[in-house]
Amino acid sequence: xxxxxxxxxxxxxxxxxxxxxxxxxxxxxxxxxxxxxxxxxxxxxxxxxxxxxxxxxxxxxxxxxxxxxxxxxxxxxxxxxxxxxxxxxxxxxxxxxxxxxxxxxxxxxxxxxxxxxxxxxxxxxxxxxxxxxxxxxxxxxxxxxxxxxxxxxxxxxxxxxxxxxxxxxxxxxxxxxxxxxxxxxxxxxxxxxxxxxxxxxxxxxxxxxxxxxxxxxxxxxxxxxxxxxxxxxxxxxxxxxxxxxxxxxxxxxxxxxxxxxxxxxxxxxxxxxxxxxxxxxxxxxxxxxxxxxxxxxxxxxxxxxxxxxxxxxxxxxxxxxxxxxxxxxxxxxxxxxxxxxxxxxxxxxxxxxxxxxxxxxxxxxxxxxxxxxxxxxxxxxxxxxxxxxxxxxxxxxxxxxxxxxxxxxxxxxxx
Length: 415
Ligand code: SF4
Hints:
four-stranded parallel beta sheet, CATH 2.40.50.140, pyruvate-formate lyase- activating enzyme, binds iron/sulfur cluster, 16 strands, 3 domains, alpha/beta
């Protein structure tokens, strides 16, 4: 946009299509290839630029897809406009992917300039991971730890707040390690404090964070600061101690469970969500049942369940005792059933309580919906004067889609 381009919707004709790809699972890669082909069909004369993890990992495959002209990996994305302008629609494919491992600087990309709903904005503050869990391709596609400077985070937050965003979600590949490469002087808790004290943002939310990296300062902030959403996404990946060891995760299940108990004591009703991989190589039926028991005991508010995906180049891809796709699918279904019950029980706790809902959109049926601080989707049974605002709301019911509530709105505000 700074270069004078106009951003159009996915289904509108475009001169240039930029496609951000994923490689975290083989499904992500397949969907990325499908997205590129679809864009090509919709815009036969377009210049297609492909970026992201899949481009970083396998530029040769991407180059072989018809219509692709520019390939950029997980760095140099701020130069996409230059790369596109230097290429011709019928010229050779330009592959700008460079080795990510030597890179030490965070690429400061200012996003969210467009006319999207001005409600919640993701602000990425950290890149890269050095944990090398045995199943994970991310350290190879994102490289080593890189943190965004606090002044750049502050500048972006101020801009977003002035554009009307009410909630900022701090994200990173390895969020809890924020600041390690900045001399250890800046920590995640300092960034949260910076946003809460120096900007007018109404809500801050933490993105996915490793349980072992949740500092005492952060827990205290969560317990005392009403503008920091009482929601933590703590990837567990498996509920079996033995599988966690094979995954080379950096915590023991027992420590994870102690943390959960502590969090619940200090922050009643905190929303705890997680990621889970089922069908990891060597996961026996007994180990999987351990995971089901863990899910039942913890009672997460939500769980993203992934069947294990064999990522070439990672240690687990060569482990013996790979689980069949059919078995993985079956385990996903069994885990989903346990998760659904727990999520429903957690949601029902809010019936009769008041929560703050950031209203994001008006549905086709005329109802408004938004997000609570506890990360519940809430459908409102009454009208509110406008979207993009936070309304205190009484929760009156819960169903499979989320919560149902009535916002406190003065009648004159509607006229
Ligand atoms: S900590 Fe997360 S990003 Fe890093 S290797 Fe493990 S799963 Fe991948």
